[in-house]
């Protein structure tokens, strides 16, 4: 590229996604994408959760691509389904407690998606699924948990950070650890190698 702009832009302010890329040795610039997630979800009402997560990942990347010509923009999104219901980020601490009460004793399906957009083209996208079995949560634990983790978990769809005490919510987890963290990292790294962002 002719200018100093990084070849990769992460369309996110997510600390966990940044940490994944940092640990993997990926050089990028993080710029939060301004998209109306609720409007996109409304347009896709009735679509499969994986399809919605992928659409949101593409939309986030596409929002930044026009102002960063030639750069690869990485968008990512996660979506939670439990008991047949889809959950967004909690709107308040009480709402977070309601989510946790509902999750208690159930299996959370966590759909994580990523997409790479350059200019006006989505060059690659991928979704992955992890299943997390939530143990029976007491009111005492929910209160203790939110005392420790609020407001940090207000930015997460499942009301947990698996890399923190959120791990105490679960009995078992099936799926890739990076998917649980919010981005299917291994497929992302493969796609970046294919595009010359990382050495093959």
Q: Average pLDDT value? A: 94
Query: How many helices in DSSP terms?
Result: 7
Low-confidence stretches: 1-5
What is the domain tally?
1
Measured between the Cα atoms of the first and last residue, the distance is: 19 Å
Summarize the helix and strand pattern as letters. EHEHHEEHEEHEHH
Total number of β-strand segments?
7
Strand content: 25-35%
The helix-and-strand class reads alpha/beta
- CATH topology label: Maf protein
Q: For this structure, what is the CATH class?
A: Alpha Beta
Helix fraction bin:
25-40%
Largest sheet data? 7 strands, mixed
Using the CA coordinates, give the radius of gyration: 17 Å
What's the multimeric state?
Answer: single chain
In the CATH hierarchy, the architecture is Alpha-Beta Complex
Shape: globular
Detail the topology: elements first, then pairings.
Blueprint lengths: L7 E3 L4 H9 L5 E2 L6 H7 L5 H16 L7 E11 L2 E3 L5 H11 L3 E12 L2 E14 L4 H11 L20 E5 L2 H5 L3 H10 L6
Parallel strand pairs: 1-2, 1-3
Antiparallel strand pairs: 3-4, 3-5, 5-6, 6-7
Helix pairs in contact: 4-5
Would you kindly provide a written description of the structure presented here, covering whatever features stand out?
- The chain has 200 residues and is an alpha/beta fold.
- It has one domain: Maf protein, CATH 3.90.950.10.
- 34% of the residues lie in helices and 25% in strands.
- It contains 7 helices and 7 strands.
- The protein has helices at residues 15-23, 37-43, 49-64, 93-103, 139-149, 177-181, 185-194; strands at 8-10, 29-30, 72-82, 85-87, 107-118, 121-134, 170-174.
- Strands 1, 2, 3, 4, 5, 6 and 7 form a 7-stranded mixed β-sheet that branches.
- A hairpin with a 2-residue loop joins strand 5 (107-118) and strand 6.
- The radius of gyration is 17 Å and the shape is globular.
- Residues 1-5 have low confidence and may be disordered.
């Amino acid at each position: 590229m002719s200018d100093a702009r990084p070849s990769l832009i992460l369309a996110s302010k997510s600390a966990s996604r940044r940490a994944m890329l940092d640990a993997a040795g990926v050089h990028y610039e993080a710029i939060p994408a301004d998209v109306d997630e609720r409007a996109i979800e409304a347009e896709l009402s009735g679509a499969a959760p994986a399809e919605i997560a992928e659409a949101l990942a593409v939309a986030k990347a596409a929002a930044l691509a026009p102002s960063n010509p030639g750069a690869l923009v990485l968008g990512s999104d996660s979506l939670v389904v439990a008991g047949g219901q889809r959950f967004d980020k909690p709107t308040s601490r009480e709402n977070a407690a309601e989510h946790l009460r509902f999750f208690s004793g159930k299996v959370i399906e966590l759909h994580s998606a990523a997409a790479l957009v350059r200019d006006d083209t989505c060059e690659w996208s991928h979704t992955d699924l992890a299943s997390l079995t939530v143990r029976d949560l007491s009111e005492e634990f929910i209160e203790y948990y939110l005392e420790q983790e609020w407001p940090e978990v207000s930015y997460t769809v499942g009301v947990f950070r698996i890399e923190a005490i959120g791990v105490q919510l679960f009995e078992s987890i099936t799926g890739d650890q990076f998917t649980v963290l919010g981005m299917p990292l291994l497929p992302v790294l493969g796609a970046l190698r294919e595009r010359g962002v990382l050495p093959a």
